[in-house]
């Protein structure tokens, strides 16, 4: 059979890149081992010596396992031609890939993007704390929206008291009597409530300023270059302080105090006894004080409803910063580090491409070749010896294809008429002929 040049060139090319394939596989296994070592070192706890040796042993085991596994795949997959057997090898290769990713790829990703993932965790936590501070600040300032209503009520009661004192606008009698006393009392209570609301504003502003300063320090820790572990520790300290500020800010709100004070306006209303000098004036004073009672009750109900609406606002839940290792951060925020994951997995699974290339090339060689595989590697000396052996077997009458002696067909006899031999005439035989015949035939019998 004749060997096609294309198959021969492919075979020679595969032999030529075999050394390069082994070298590339060794480099990939070594690179995966190095990044695995960096990833393992970041998640182990203990003394420096223990962490070092444990990480070295694990990374070495990973490198050897990767090199051995892909060496087997590169050797066997291209040679198997049976469909079921090849599918079995592919399933085995898929299982091996999953195991490699489980023992190495995620650690490679932790080594490649661990610091960035930890910073991402800090940044996400920082954003949550900023939202909590803003919400707590808003809840604390919500009671300030009641201040205008309280101030208007205080001004109204104070104005009515002044009008009654100067012109007797309510009872028709000037002077300071029971009505003036009641209106002045209500105005004073409203002013005290307004002072309470106003006083809380300064305290809320001070605490918000402290929280903003903590946030600024935490932002610097997130964005400052350098080792991430010390920054994460400082970030946790600042987070604890900020949580305390947020809790204090929530307790600074005066909505509950306003609700209680407004309820006391109605429940604790005590009208003075009418002190008019005449029955008619006393009756008018009682009527005005009843009107004031109704007004105070309405004002109390309005303030209570407004305070209830403020208190119905969801309370800020206590947030706690949980430090994560680089590997845990990479797994939690994997969507933000897809390129790093792709690089970490590619280091371990790139030999899949080499396996497929060799499989395709070997299939092409088997398809293009028309000779036995042994004939593709025969030398000239072996060819000459084979030709000599072929000639010897032909001369010995051996069938080369079967190795058995050749069977010579027997020719059928031909019927010919018998013709009596007529002895030659002795007279015609010369002495020389007679001597020759004597030597040939031997002596005649007597």
Describe this structure in words.
This protein is mainly alpha-helical. The protein has helices spanning 5-43, 48-76, 83-142, 147-167, 178-223, 228-251, 255-267, 279-311, 326-332, 338-349, 351-368, 380-395, 431-441. The chain folds into two domains: 5-114 and 335-377, no CATH class; 117-324, no CATH class. The longest helix has 60 residues, at 83-142. It is rod-shaped, with a radius of gyration of 55 Å. It starts with a helix and ends in a 5-residue tail after the last helix. Mean pLDDT is 78; it is low at 418-422 and 424-432.
What's this model, at a glance?
The chain has about 450 residues and is an all-alpha fold. About 75% of the residues lie in helices and about 0% in strands.
Spans with pLDDT under 50 lasting ≥5 residues? 418-422, 424-432
Major beta-sheet overview: none
Instruction: State the distance separating the first and last CA atoms.
Output: 70 Å
- Cα Rg: 55 Å
Supply the number of structural domains: 2
- Amount of beta strand: under 5%
Q: How many beta-strand elements?
A: 0
Work out the helicity level: over 70%
Explain the layout of strands and helices.
Layout: H1 5-43, H2 48-76, H3 83-142, H4 147-167, H5 178-223, H6 228-251, H7 255-267, H8 279-311, H9 326-332, H10 338-349, H11 351-368, H12 380-395, H13 431-441
Helix pairs in contact: 1-2, 1-3, 1-11, 2-3, 3-5, 3-6, 3-9, 3-10, 4-5, 5-6, 5-8, 7-8
């Amino acid at each position: 059979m004749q060997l096609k040049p294309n198959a021969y060139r492919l075979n020679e090319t595969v032999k030529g890149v075999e050394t390069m394939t082994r070298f590339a596989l060794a480099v990939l296994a070594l690179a995966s081992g190095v990044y695995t070592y960096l990833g393992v070192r970041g998640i182990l706890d203990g003394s420096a010596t223990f962490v070092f040796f444990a990480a070295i042993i694990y990374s070495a085991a990973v490198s050897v396992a990767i090199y051995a596994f892909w060496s087997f795949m590169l050797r066997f997959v291209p040679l198997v031609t049976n469909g079921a057997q090849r599918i079995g090898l592919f399933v085995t290769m898929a299982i091996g890939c999953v195991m490699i990713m489980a023992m190495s790829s995620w650690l490679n990703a932790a080594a490649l993007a661990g610091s960035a993932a930890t910073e991402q965790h800090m940044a996400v936590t920082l954003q949550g704390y900023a939202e909590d501070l803003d919400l707590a600040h808003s809840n604390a300032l919500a009671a300030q929206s009641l201040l205008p209503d309280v101030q208007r009520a205080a001004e109204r009661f104070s104005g009515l008291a002044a009008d009654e004192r100067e012109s007797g606008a309510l009872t028709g009698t000037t002077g300071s009597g029971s009505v003036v006393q009641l209106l002045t009392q209500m105005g004073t209570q409203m002013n005290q409530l307004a002072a309470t609301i106003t006083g809380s504003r300064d305290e809320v502003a001070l605490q918000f300023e402290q929280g903003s300063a903590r946030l600024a320090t935490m932002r610097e820790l997130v964005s400052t270059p350098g080792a991430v572990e010390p920054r994460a520790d400082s970030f946790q300290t600042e987070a604890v302080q900020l949580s305390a500020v947020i809790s204090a800010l929530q307790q600074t709100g005066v909505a509950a105090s306003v609700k209680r004070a407004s309820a006391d306006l109605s429940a604790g209303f005590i009208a003075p006894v009418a002190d008019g000098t005449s029955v008619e004036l006393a009756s008018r004073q009682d009527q005005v004080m009843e009107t004031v009672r109704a007004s105070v009750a309405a004002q109390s109900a309005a303030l209570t409803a407004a305070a209830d609406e403020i208190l119905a606002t969801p309370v800020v839940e206590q947030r706690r910063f949980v430090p994560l290792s680089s590997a845990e951060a990479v797994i939690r925020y994997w969507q933000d580090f897809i390129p790093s994951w792709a690089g970490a997995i590619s280091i371990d699974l790139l030999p899949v491409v080499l396996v497929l290339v060799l499989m395709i090339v070997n299939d092409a060689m088997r398809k293009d070749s028309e000779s036995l595989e042994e004939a593709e590697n025969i030398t000239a000396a072996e060819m000459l010896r084979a030709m000599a052996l072929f000639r010897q077997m032909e001369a010995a009458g051996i069938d080369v294809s079967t190795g058995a002696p050749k069977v010579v067909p027997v020719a059928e006899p031909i019927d010919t008429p018998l013709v009596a031999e007529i002895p030659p005439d002795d007279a015609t035989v010369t002495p020389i002929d007679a001597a020759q015949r004597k030597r040939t035939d031997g002596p005649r019998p007597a």
